[in-house]
Structure formats: structure tokens, C-alpha cells
Amino acid sequence: MILSDVSDKYADVNDGMGPRWFDDLEISAQIVSIDGVGGVLANAGPTYYRTAELIPFAGQMNFDSADAQRLYDADVTNGTNKWYDTVLHEMIHVLGFGTMWKLQGLIANYGTAQAPDYRYTGTLGNQAYATEFPALYAADTQSGLGVPVESDTGSAGTDGGHWDEVTFDTELMTGFIDTTNSVSAMTLASLADLGYDVSYTLSSPPCFCAGTLIDTVDGAVPVEDLRSGCLIPTADHGIQTLRFVLMTRISSENGPIDPKHYPIRFRTGAFGLARQTQDLWVSPQHRMAVTAPNMMQMIGQNTVLIAAKDLLDLQKVQRRVPKHDILYFHLVFDHHVLIRAHGVWSESMYLQSQPPACAFVHGQSARTLVRKLRKAQKQQPFDMNNPTNFTQQTAQTA
Ligand SMILES: [Zn+2]
């Protein structure tokens, strides 16, 4: 969800632990008595924030003792996610959702103090409102004022700090938890408005499947066993320190998995003469390094990055129906780099703030190029993943 570090903060938060460094955000959680069964399930917010950026570095979540066990037990019995969703909802409040809006000037009241009519005014959140919820946006005669924010529950903890329940219903950051809840791009965009570096691609992220062996300085290591701090050779930036590993689970628990998440398998030989050691499984969005002897003449680049889903026209590349949950792992470095798995070079997780390791080619132009490469490959096999070409590229663009 959030990709980059925020600044470290040295502070004493009066919790008896003395002054210390806060790397990003420290959240304390406790179970307390709030209002008995039902009603308020939890509350949360920042306790201290960075005064320059207005981004929290410490916060507190309180869960109602009369509800916590009940929610958890119901989830275990019914297979719902209400407890998990409640915790995530509160964590997003600690990040500043609803709780830092006033301070950051991201909310306006078009009503009165007694009868408020709140709208969220952040630029990115409003763009997401228009693009992600076009029907709601079109039907909203006041859309120019901002995103509808909860205004009429009469509860100070709910009004002015959540998306409007009537409008957005099952969105996670409305004031009411539903049986199923989803995090919208609009919520992520609102975090970007607060100043976080946000990923919008959680629903279909570029990454490696569990079990993939990633080359490290200590040999090949399963991606799920990698930890931040691992040293990993790259094709374009020497040896790099792995900063963090993120995991996305695509679950089949609540119905069949959407085909757009199906993993893509590159069988040995998919990249022609490239030295692939065994089948490689990645997510559809994961970009592979692609080269050809005459690539420069074809498109003015020695190497391009093409998403796995755009490489399906190659021989030995297939979308596979998963038999169980899919675990996707994302590897984040200081740079967007090319790393090697099963002998094949492909990208690390790309952050908007990083220059891309190679030019991206996608959609129709990617598929046209891929068909040409496939034809060329049939006439005279070549290495479609040749690191010699990547180095030429780096030398040219450095
Ligand atoms: Zn809330």
C-alpha cells in the first residue's frame, strides 16, 4: 500500500520508553472497554506527528473488549474478514485518514457546525472519485465540492473522518464495517494526498510467485525466504541491498480467482537461447527484460521491459489456472533494477519515484514486437534475455 520511507523522527512520546528514533510509524494497540456489544467497535488515531510534513509517527488503536473476541470468533466460524478489516481500518486512521484531514486542509464543511456537510477536497482523492466511481460522481450534483464525507451520524468519531456510508457503502473507510469490505483506489489516493508514496496496483501487482529462486550473493534463495538486507546482484546497478519484501495473497476463499490474477508460466526455452534453468512463474503484470540482436534497429532500444501478459504469444508462455491461493512476492530496492530468477532477468518492483531500469513497452506495441521476435526466433534462435545488451543500454543512458 505504502512504498517509501517517511523521514525518521527522534522523539519522546511519554510512554515510559524514553526518547527514541521512530522509523516511519509506531502503532500501539490495546483492548479496552468502549461501549459494550455493538456500537463503536474501535477507535484510533495518531498521537504524535511530524510537524513539517504533518505525517504521524506514533499512534494508538483501541478495540472494544465487548466486540473484539466476538468479531474474531465470527470470522473464524463464517470465513469473514471483519476483525482483520477493522484492524486495517483503524491502522489507516493512524496513518492520518480522517484524522489529519483538518490539519492538512483536506476537508471542507459546507454546512454548519450543528448540521455539517463535509466534503473531502484532496486533489488525488477527488481524481480517483471521478475515475473509480464514475456513476456516483456523475449522479452527485455537488461533486465539484469534493468527495462526500460522512456528515449525518451525529457521532463525532464518525462524522468528518470517513467516506460517506450511503454513497460508498462497502468501502473499507466508510464509518461502518460490512460483511465484505474493499479498499478503493480513492482511499489510497487520499493517502497520497497526505504525502505518502502510494501503490495503486495492489489488486494486480508485478511480482514473483512463491517458490521462485532469486539469485543472491549467497546463491539462489526462495523468494519467500528473502529478507530486507539481503544482497542481490543486479544487471544494471551492481550488488543492491533488498529494502523490503511485500506479499500479496490472492485467495480463492470468497469465490473463484479472477483470471486477470492467474500466474503466467515461462517454460524453459521461452526466451530462446537464454540460460533459463527451470520454469518461472510470475504475475501477469511482472515485466521481463527482452532483447534481440537487432532490437536497436527495431525500436531504438537494446532492451525493453514487457509485462508477462504481453508475452503470451511467445512459445512456452502460458497463463495457468491456479489450483489454490496464489502468493505473490514483490522485491523493493533503492532503484528499479533487473534481478535474476531461474537464469532469467526481470524487474524488481517499480516505484513511481524511480527511473525505470529499461524502457517499458506495453499493450499493442508490445504484442506487435513479440510477434516479430517470435518469427525471428523461429528462423534463427537467439538469446531474448541477454544481459550483454542490458549493459550496453546502461552505458548509453547513464
Ligand atoms: Zn473509522
Task: Please explain how this structure is put together.
The strands form nine sheets. This protein has a three-stranded mixed sheet with strand order 3-5-4. Strands 6-7-8 form a three-stranded antiparallel sheet. A three-stranded antiparallel sheet has the order 9-20-14, with no helix packed on it. The model is unreliable at 393-398 (pLDDT under 50). A hairpin with an 8-residue loop joins strand 1 and strand 2 (20-22). The protein has helices at residues 65-78, 82-95, 101-104, 123-132, 134-139, 165-168, 185-194, 295-299, 363-379, 387-397; strands at residues 9-11, 20-22, 26-32, 42-50, 55-64, 107-109, 118-120, 147-148, 208-209, 213-216, 219-222, 231-233, 239-241, 244-250, 264-266, 280-282, 287-291, 303-307, 317-319, 326-332, 338-341, 344-347, 359-360. With 398 residues, it is an alpha+beta fold. The protein contains ten helices and 23 strands. The relative contact order is 0.10. Bound molecules: zinc ion. Zinc ion binds at residues 89, 93, 162, 175.
